[in-house]
Amino acid sequence: MAAPEQAETRYSNGGDEWMLVQLAEGMSVGVNMRALAICRRLEEQRLDGVLDICPSNASYLVRLDPDELHPRALEEGLRELEAEVGDAADFHLQTRIVDVPILWDDPWTHEVVQRFRDRHQTPDLTDIEFAAQLNGFDSTQAFRDAVFGTPFLVTMIGFVPGLTWDYQLVTSDRQIEVPKYVRPRTDTPKLAFAWGGAFATVYPGPRRGRLPAARHVRDAVLRRGAPAAGLPRPRLVLPCGRHHPLSIRRQARVRPHPGLGRGRVVHLQDR
């Protein structure tokens, strides 16, 4: 669940070229909107010496050229922007909804995760059973309904291009959280829908050229949907993602983009 926000924003220098600004210790939609609002205003200023701006879940990172912009001057400017933004109550985010088909509890992913039960907190339960029990659901069906019943906000991109961090749009008391394994798995099925902490994601698949499969999914969506010129810059204006389940029979009719390889959609698992 989201922790209370820290009393004061933390500004940290990373060598000569980086400044990390941590707005809060815990994740919430409110603090994510504050980070996006500050980054948007910083981009609009087009300051000489600001090379890159990267918003995150509860923080943001700025790369600067210290020969053009002194870090202390940048920090002073960022503090002023933070004061102007406040709680970001008037911040507007342009979004689009992308439906990601998920095959719930499919046999292929089940086969992989069952090989690593000795590394799991509860070896006698499946990942889905464990996540349902941990989050207080009476059944896996109730857990499934909670996963697919509310859209996810894509709050940031990482660790590779196309890998989204998806935060479910519910109150903190309803936020689903799933810990990682006691010891990491050495194998994860490509394109698996996974949960780590309070965030869900779809693991990128094998590389095709220089881009992971998740980027090919995005490219395919752009070709099928809105014109690329009308899309917001993903760095500052992030879309909503909405997952929905598939039956095995319906999954057989899904035709992936050629860049996805086999392109199998798979079930929830915790990371």
Describe this structure in words.
With 271 residues, this protein is of the alpha+beta class. It folds into two domains: 10-85, Gyrase A, domain 2; 97-270, Beta Barrel (Cyclophilin). The chain is built from seven helices and eleven strands. The strands form two sheets. It has a seven-stranded mixed sheet. Strand 3 and strand 4 (59-64) form a beta hairpin. The longest helix is centred in the first third of the chain and has 17 residues, at 29-45. The radius of gyration is 20 Å and the shape is elongated.
Helix share, percent: 25-40%
Look at the structure and give the mean pLDDT. Answer: 76
Strand content: 15-25%
Distance between the termini: 17 Å
- Low-confidence segments, given as residue ranges, are 1-5, 207-239, 252-271
Number of helices: 7
What is the number of strand segments? 11
Choose one word for the global shape: elongated
Defining key terms:
271 residues, alpha+beta, Gyrase A, domain 2, Cyclophilin, 2 domains, 7-stranded mixed β-sheet, 4-stranded antiparallel β-sheet, 11 strands, 21% strand, disordered N terminus
